[in-house]
Amino acid sequence: MKAEDIVMAERPSVVTRGLLDDLSAIVREAASTIIMPRFGRLAEGEIRTKSSATDLVTVADLLTEEYLSEKFKRLLPQALLIGEEQCCARPDLARQAAEAGLSITIDPIDGTANYAAGLPLFGVMVAVLEKGIPLASVIFDPVTQSSAMALKGEGAWMEDRTGCATPLRVAAPFQRIDQITGKIAWRTLPFSDTARADQTLRAMDGLWDFRCAAHEYRHVAAGHGHVLAYSRTCPWDHCPGWLLLHEAGGYGARFNGAAYHEAIPGRGLLYAPDKHSWHQVHEALTLPV
Fold first, then answer.
1. Which residues contact 221 (CB under 8 A, 6 or more apart)?
2. For 75-110, b where at least 16 C-beta lie within 10 A, e where not — what string?
3. For 31-87, what is each residue's pLDDT tens digit?
4. What topology is assigned to 3-167 in CATH?
5. What angle do CA 98, 103, 105 make, to 5 degrees?
6. 240 φ, ψ to 5°?
7. CA-CA distances (angstroms) from residue 66 to 4, 45, 279, 289?
8. What class is the 177-284 domain?
9. Distance separating alpha carbons of residues 231 and 269, to the nearest angstrom
10. Can you give the pTM of this predicted structure?
């Protein structure tokens, strides 16, 4: 499969605006009945670690994923469900998305460390894929009750708690490195020339880290930042944002220039306002090809 096939694949008739609205409504229900009632009220035994001291899971993550999985299975019984917590027990599950006719990725609470600490910066991320290609996505903020939504070929928009929709558009391309703002996972990126990459990072106008990909994607899709760079690229964290940023007019690719897809080899993810900007940042950060 070629990168251009991933970008240009057509949306099947099953993935419609109506389906996207149904997904969003289910996510809202989960947030209002499971996530928010427990926010700031978790008991000590309701938070545990996974791979490290900062990789957390709470009872709200588990209950939300269970709730969403059950509802989505009723909505799209033919879809393979790929939930973050389920993949902890079945690591091979995510790879099956590349071949599945339809699949749904679920991140029940992205930014769990923030959620567990009582910080109001977390979100729910959902994407519908066809053979691994993101076709519809919802990134929901339970605190503001707003949804960043995208449908392949039909754009990206923000929908507030009243249902009022506003189109999303990435920032205009930058002319110089010192104009760039965004999130760069510099601690784990495989720079070819660390000294030069460090000089580039110091020259940028402003870098931030929300500890929450959901809000980082929403922020950049709305034009409030220029770049995103990640080394760890789990599908539940990035399939929704990949579609959101591309439908908002942005450009993203693996470090080797390939599209983000399980069937195409590549590491990391880099986003910029357009392809020219992408190459500027890629070269300045000395990322691998």
1. 148, 156, 168, 170, 241, 244, 245, 248, 250
2. ebeebbbbbbbbbeeeeebbeebbebebbbbbbbbb
3. 999 999 999 999 989 999 988 878 899 999 999 999 999 999 999 999 999 999 999
4. Fructose-1,6-Bisphosphatase; Chain A, domain 1 (3.30.540)
5. 100
6. -65, -45
7. 35, 19, 41, 39
8. alpha beta
9. 6
10. 0.94
